[in-house]
Design a protein that fits this description.
The protein is an alpha+beta fold and 118 residues long. The protein is built from 5 helices and 2 strands, in the order H-E-H-H-H-H-E. It has helices at 3-8, 24-35, 41-50, 63-81, 86-90, and strands spanning 14-20, 98-104.
């Protein structure tokens, strides 16, 4: 199910944006940013949507630290985009949908929020 369908047709009031540790798509985007790597067309399209979230990626961090920070940045960026989608605007204006983010570990399907007040 897409976010658009959930928002418009199901009137979903809350979206939870999950970013998981070790995300392969975010790692591929970091590799593209720092090493100029590319990938096949559909994966490359996904990488291109993630790259803007890596503006502040610190090349001085270890690869694990970079990935951790990039997963967090991607989840925050995605969360900020939801209220600005045409579907959200058309469904009653900005603020119609609430978004919350969470970060889980690989294999963790609980989606528990690491801290409150975000």
């Amino acid at each position: 199910m897409t976010l658009q369908h959930a928002g418009v047709h199901l009137r979903t009031p809350l979206f939870v944006v999950l970013g998981h540790e070790g995300c392969g798509a975010v790692k591929a985007a970091l590799d593209a940013k720092f090493h100029g790597t590319g990938d096949r067309s559909r994966i490359e399209a996904l990488i291109q949507t993630i790259l803007p979230t890596l503006e502040r990626a610190d090349p001085g961090l270890t690869p694990d630290e970079q990935l951790h920070a990039a997963v967090e940045a991607n989840a925050r960026f995605t969360m900020r985009q939801i209220p600005d989608t045409p579907e959200s605007e058309g469904a009653g204006g900005r603020g119609r949908h609430a978004a919350r983010r969470s970060r889980g570990r690989d294999g963790d399907r609980t989606g528990a929020f690491p801290r409150a007040g975000f």
